Amino acid sequence: MPAKSKINVKEKVEDNVCDLSLSELKEVPVSEIASFKRVNVLDLSSNRLLTLGNNFTLLTRLVKLDLSKNKIKSLPDEFGVLRNLRHLNLYDNQLQYLPITFGDLNSLRYLDLKCNPLHTTLAKVVGPCLTNKDCQESARKTVNFMTQLKANSTKEDYVNIHQQQTLASLSKEINADKTSNDKAAGDIHKSKKSTKKYKSKKKANFDNQHQTSAIPTTIGTITTTTTTTTTTTLSSSTSASATALGNNNNLTISKTAKSKRSADGILKANTNSSRNHGTALSTLIIFLLLLGVNIVVIYMVMFKNPEIAEKLVEAIPHQYRNLIITKTEIFRLRVTDWISQFRTPPEEN
């Protein structure tokens, strides 16, 4: 059983709102909240709730309920008794399905179920909740769906569907754990093999040294000196070879990484340049189309075809009509002034 909250609910109540967000709650203090008869807005967001408890349905006066950013895995079976509920926020929880009584929330007008591992069928019904209108539509569709589900099937059928979903997810987790365990066992087996090889080599070296020490003292001294010199030379050459090999490997790896990075950079640069070319081309086409439309409008106005001009003006949306006519008239006047200045002969001195 989680530890009871020691929070003072009375300090969190203001008018009809009880704000218990960011309070590290592990269970809902239902009895304390229910003692405030005027509270109909409850905020339990950003807590550590795993469940609401069976007595949560005593809060039948609630109109707005915020349970976002918790770890709630299921709602109470009798959640539908909160018939006055109009706004319900369940964002970022662990809900896979809703109780069958959810269809009784006929007053619900807002529902947010984003970031929940919902069952596939239920997720399609709920839909996205990106805007306020989406959440309103989600509330309507979800209540209707749960009402039909309650009418067409029994509660046991609905629970069995989600139990199968839960079993499938558990089997995936078990298979993943088994794969990781097999990999760990393989690594342990390899380490044991390498340890055995190291011990056998060490034993062989020890035997060789023991046999060498059994030779007479005079010859043994010469042999020991020779063996020591040879061993030192071999060790030095082996260490140098290993060092050179390691350096070569590091150099090869660094060159490979650099070539890969350069290839990725070239690919990204080519992609960006192609996108820029495409954007520039589309912008040029739009500009030419708009220029052509302006030329046609100016032509119609300048050559005094009022009927065609009026039809063309009527086709323009109302919110843009006055602006376009004004700009066109200004341009026509400027062109007329320019033409008149061009045709006027220069004054003779």
From TrEMBL:
Residues 190-203 have a biased composition (Basic residues). Residues 180-207 are annotated as: Disordered. This is Leucine-rich repeat-containing protein 59. InterPro entries: Leu-rich_rpt, Leu-rich_rpt_typical-subtyp, LRR_dom_sf, LRR_domain-containing. Keywords: Leucine-rich repeat, Membrane, Repeat, Transmembrane, Transmembrane helix. It comes from Glossina fuscipes. Residues 180-189 have a biased composition (Basic and acidic residues). SUPFAM superfamilies: L domain-like. It comes from the Eukaryota. Pfam families: LRR_8. The lineage of its organism: Eukaryota, Metazoa, Ecdysozoa, Arthropoda, Hexapoda. One of its GO terms (cellular component) is cytoplasm. The chain crosses the membrane at residues 280-302. The keyword Transmembrane helix applies.
